[in-house]
Design a protein that fits this description.
heterodimer; A: about 325 residues; mainly alpha; MetI-like fold; about 80% helix; B: about 280 residues
């Protein structure tokens, strides 16, 4: 297991290096430099001032050197300064990160709580009416635009005051109950599509496992049905669900971007959107870099959990 | 062989029917719309849906007919969805099959690029690309296409690798068939099943991505109607006029559901492993 972890950790390096290349050079594709955008068309600067500004904006050097400097900076946690407010980017991101992570986590939990039981129930009564309804419901869940659902929620619940506490965001550590109340519906809007995915995977995987010989053996030796289902079948059927859960955590994080906007929650997504509307590239670069890193790390954790749950993956590694 | 089975599959047929209906809507919209979708009418702002006024889905904050705008927006959504999927699929499949077939250094290089693209959640990558290219309809196609490249690359690579050690490939080679010939005449046609399913699902996700981008103001720009930007402008008035938000959303859900039903049915039909399960 140790060797597997190390090998997977090392594989992160080239991927994150590639991500940083994309984030840095794509922004360079934009016509006009950050400095020109900062100055706009109105501002006049003397040649001396221009030299100084160019140095501050780091435009006095060739691009590859700038990239290496930028890479060095972000490795030390320095994401530069916002073009609009002049504030450092990192503290802004760090103060907004917890909300986005919480939203992602809540929606993940909701999705699993809805998806797994429905998937199991559906697989146990295959081809029944209930199975049919939950399969169609699953497809419908996949087809709902999260932001539309969120907008409908805002529309409906604004008529029932108190359902969604409006006003400023309250951190979980200040008032857990208020915080959960605030994030429940946004999380539901993000998570419902994913609940559908979880349901479908649980169902298909259960159906496959329930056909296995060892399930027949377990039944034949007289084990009670719940014991067969939960200890023998579910334990094995849950593996693909773990994988799809991990790989979709990032998708939920992406969903958070839109939902934060609809519910006016001050998370990272809103910061990113604001930065995009304002063409504030240091912030855009930083947010994309941070989310991509989180995404890659979550995928890595998923792989490790999977390896922990399924010894065959580790064995495979040893044999090789 | 596949086609008759397609028609026996209720789920796939339902999906197909929905898609055909939307295609009919597009054809009709070229010749006839209930109202001019861009004509504003200050006398009829935010009018509720009614038969008598002829505005079946009501009017928006400029007095424009919502049904006509949804019908016009169908073309935008479907064209973006098809073009983006075609873009992503053609680049992704080309990358994937060469990587899978050549193996070694090529495989490694190509798939590392795909890995990097995979490191971004799809909506974030699309938003990022839009922020760089600028907001217009063509760039939406490019942004969604880029999101799809690694997905198609991975799937087609996987199926080529699974296929290439088969007897018929060796037989073709010993008959003197060249690399390109084997790849495009033998391997690609045999690996189409998962790719077709992916295409169908990609079409559905493209509609969701386009509407999300337009909703955020980063996609199709008004006054050109798209379902996403209709919802975007509905946000300001939906408390007064819920229909401005409800109908465009329903249009998205139905078409996306159509593609999902088709994709799901196709998977049933094309994936023999699952066929035994069901």
């Amino acid at each position: 297991m140790g060797r597997y972890v190390v090998r997977r950790l090392l594989s992160l390096i080239p991927v994150l290096f590639g991500v940083s290349l994309i984030v840095f050079f794509l922004v360079r594709l934009i016509p006009g430099t950050a400095l020109e955008m900062y100055l706009g068309t109105q501002v006049e600067a003397t040649p001396e001032q221009m030299e100084e500004l160019k140095r501050i904006f780091g435009e006095d050097k060739p691009v590859p050197i700038l990239y290496l400097e930028w890479l060095g900076d972000i490795l030390r946690g320095d994401f530069g300064y916002s073009l609009r407010t002049g504030r450092m980017v990192l503290p802004d991101i760090l103060s907004r990160l917890p909300l986005s992570l919480e939203l992602t986590l809540f929606s993940l939990i909701l999705a699993l709580l809805i998806g797994i039981p429905l998937g199991i129930a559906s697989s146990l009564r295959q081809n029944s009416f209930g199975d049919f309804v939950s399969r169609i419901g699953g497809l419908l869940g996949l087809s709902l635009p999260q932001f539309w659902l969120a907008a409908l929620m805002v529309m409906v619940f604004s008529r029932f005051r108190g359902w969604i506490p409006m006003g400023n965001y309250v951190s979980f550590f200040d008032s857990p109950l208020q915080n959960i109340k605030m994030l429940f519906f946004p999380s539901l809007a993000i998570g419902i599509g994913f609940a559908a995915v979880v349901m479908r995977y649980t169902r298909n995987s259960m159906l496959e496992v329930l056909q296995m010989d060892y399930i027949r053996t377990a039944k034949a030796k007289g084990l009670k049905k719940p014991s067969v289902i939960y200890f023998h079948a579910l334990k094995n059927a849950i593996l693909p669900v773990i994988t799809v859960t991990g790989f979709n955590a990032g998708y939920l994080l992406g969903g958070a971007i839109v939902i934060e906007e609809v519910f006016a929650l001050p998370g990272m997504g809103r910061l990113a959107l604001y930065a995009i509307y304002q063409r504030d590239y240091p912030i855009i670069q930083a947010v994309v870099m941070v989310i991509a890193t989180l995404f890659v790390v979550v995928n890595l954790i998923t792989d490790l959990v999977y390896a922990l749950a399924d010894p065959r993956i580790r064995l495979d590694d040893v044999v090789r | 062989m596949t086609v008759p089975r397609l028609f026996k599959n209720g789920i796939a047929v339902t999906g197909l029917v929905i898609i055909v209906l939307y295609v009919l809507i597009i054809i009709v919209s070229f010749f006839w719309l209930p109202f001019d979708p861009s004509e504003m009418n200050s006398q009829r702002l935010l009018e509720a849906p009614s038969f008598t006024s002829g505005h079946l889905f009501g009017t928006d904050e400029f007095g424009r007919d919502i049904l006509s705008r949804i019908m016009k927006g169908t073309t935008v959504s479907l064209v973006i969805s098809i073009a983006a999927t075609a873009l992503g699929a053609s680049f992704g499949i080309l990358m994937g099959i060469w990587a899978g077939y050549l193996g070694g250094r090529w495989d490694n290089g190509i798939m590392r690029i795909a890995d990097v693209l995979f490191s971004f959640p799809s909506l974030l990558l699309a938003i990022f690309v839009m922020a760089i290219l600028g907001e217009n309809t063509y760039n939406v196609i490019i942004a969604i296409g880029i999101v799809y490249i690694p997905q198609f690359a991975r799937i087609s690579r996987g199926s080529i690798i699974a296929l290439k050690s088969n007897e018929f490939v060796r037989a073709a080679r010993s008959n003197g068939a060249g690399r390109t010939y084997i790849l495009f005449r033998h391997l690609l046609p045999n690996s189409m099943a998962p790719i077709i399913v992916q295409i169908s699902l990609s079409l559905s996700v493209a509609i969701l991505l386009e509407s999300a981008l337009s909703f955020l103001g980063l996609g199709v720009q008004p006054p050109e109607p798209s379902w996403g930007n209709m919802l975007s402008s509905a946000r300001k008035v939906m408390m007064l006029a819920p229909w401005t938000a409800i109908y465009p959303g329903l249009a998205i859900v139905t078409l996306v559901l159509g593609f999902n039903l088709l994709g799901d049915g196709l998977r049933d039909i094309l994936d023999p492993r699952l066929r035994n399960v069901r």
